[in-house]
Amino acid sequence: MSFHMVVQSAQSWFRRLGSARIKILLVLLLLMVVFTSLMRLVMCNGGRHDADTRLSAAVRTLPMLVSADYFPRALAGTVIPQDEYLHYAESLSRYCQIAGLRYLYAFKREGEKVLYLLDSASSAREVKKRPYQAFYADTGEHALAALKDGLPRTVTVSDTRGEFHTHLLPVRLADGSYYLLFARLLSWGIFWGYL
């Protein structure tokens, strides 16, 4: 059915309506639907911008939340003691709660794999699920791509824990390689304007 045919059928249906009041109500209803749809679109775009800003600020803040020698030691392959790792993981978890984030991570590349350097786990039990230097299941391979090309990106990622709006910020090292700072929040909050 072409657009012209749709318009003609709508016009004939509209002419059959006898009352001017019904026509006015239908026009008002149509305007309300259009206005509501446009407002939802504006709110979603504003929410997405706010989320992007929050995620970007979080990944730039992450190095300030740990000691200055943490990342150099972790990247050099030094074993980070479990109690130190747990201390920083809990600290990142508290920061995530305050900033309205779901997760905050740091990763490094080893070959074609991505390894955890730091995780915002909130308990020792969660740290055991994603321990220091464990391999990260890189859904969509966005983390590996960012570590390879050094370009920051904001993506939506779905995994077993949900759908997340994610910001990845590669940090260049002196040897030309990168480590990755990574923040995410739940996508449904952006769509429904809860951010």
Order of helix and strand elements from N to C terminus:
HHHHEEHHEEEH
Over all CA atoms, what is the radius of gyration? Answer: 24 Å
**Approximately how much beta-strand content do the residues carry?**
15-25%
CATH topology: Beta-Lactamase
| Structural class category | alpha+beta
Q: What low-confidence regions span 5 or more consecutive residues with pLDDT below 50?
A: 190-195
Name of the CATH homologous superfamily: PAS domain
SS field, number of helical segments:
7
Number of domains: 1
Distance between the termini: 41 Å
The residue fraction in helices comes out at 40-55%
What is the strand tally? 5
The major sheet is characterized as: 5 strands, antiparallel
CATH class category label? Alpha Beta
How are the elements arranged and paired?
Elements: H1 3-16, H2 20-61, H3 70-75, H4 82-99, E1 103-110, E2 113-119, H5 124-129, H6 142-149, E3 153-159, E4 162-172, E5 178-186, H7 187-191
Antiparallel strand pairs: 1-2, 1-5, 3-4, 4-5
Written description of the protein model:
This protein has helices at residues 3-16, 20-61, 70-75, 82-99, 124-129, 142-149, 187-191; strands at 103-110, 113-119, 153-159, 162-172, 178-186. The chain is of the alpha+beta class. The protein has one domain: Beta-Lactamase (2-Layer Sandwich), CATH 3.30.450.20. The chain has a five-stranded antiparallel β-sheet. The radius of gyration is 24 Å and the shape is elongated. 23% of the residues are buried.
